[in-house]
Amino acid sequence: MDDGLWSRIEPLLPVWPDKSPGPRPLDDRLCLQGILFVLHTGIGWEDLPQELGYGSGMTCWRRLKRWSDAGVFDQLHQVLLGELNAAGRIDWTRAVADGGHLRAKKGGEGVGPSPVDRGRPGSKHHVICDGAGVPLRVITTGGNIPDVTQAIALVDGIRPVRGRPGRPRRRFEALLADKGYDSHAVREQITARRIMPIIPRRGTTGIARLGKLRYVVEQTISHLHQFKRLAIRWDKHLDIHDALVSLACALICHRRLPRSC
Predict the structure, then answer these.
(1) 232-233 and 95-104 as β-strands: parallel, antiparallel, unpaired?
(2) Alpha-carbon span 164 to 18, nearest angstrom
(3) Tens of pLDDT along 195-250?
(4) How far is it, in rounded angstroms, from Cα 105 to Cα 18?
């Protein structure tokens, strides 16, 4: 983990009480490096090598839980979106939505029979990104939840993005999606939010060249699932899984920052 990323995360971390009982807690930066190691490699928390100096896997898991409850990685994601917006790296002309399946090994909330995996337990990442592929919001549901049911939640879940003079922005000019989002009610609700829905109808040949604009969300889902801990869901607790998803989104945003930042 480079110093630039740590300098953005450190101010967001909750402070430990000066007179907390028990032994002195492990350094936050070492715990974060252990969390990143698990996120990148996909190994189990109990398999985290203590020789690396990151503490035990459960130490990192408990710290992740504490930070998840405090919303640290959601805040980090927003900070980095603001920096991207300030650098002109967010395309406000369109947002793109899609869903990506993943197998779930341990059940829990947000797990259901996956229609693309012979009914095995699975989850789905519903993703919305900007026109350049910057992840804006991810919702985890059961693998059997249709994409169209999460369309409005994705749009409304985009938090205002700072970084430029004036009121923080959250509304895109258009929403692009595939036929899985075909719904008259969804189109009406998107239009009511002053966003143009560009969604092909079922039974038609589709909209010409829409795929060339929609590929960015598939690329974003691919980048998200390159973190091996997210390619297969091992975490039974949905809040822990979603915290790792938020951290992964923040890392994707961090990679897109100009080198001078």
Answers:
(1) parallel
(2) 38
(3) 999 998 887 776 767 778 789 999 999 999 999 999 999 999 999 999 999 999 99
(4) 40
Rounded (10°) angle between helices 57-69 and 72-86: 70
**C-alpha to C-alpha distance for 67 and 239, rounded to whole angstroms:** 11
Would you kindly state where each structural domain of the chain is located, as residue ranges? 3-15+22-69, 91-238
pLDDT band of 68, cuts 50, 70, 90: very high
Residue whose token pair is 């239009």: 191
**Do 251 and 224 form a contact (C-beta atoms < 8 A)?**
no
- CATH number 3.40.1190.10 given to 91-238: no
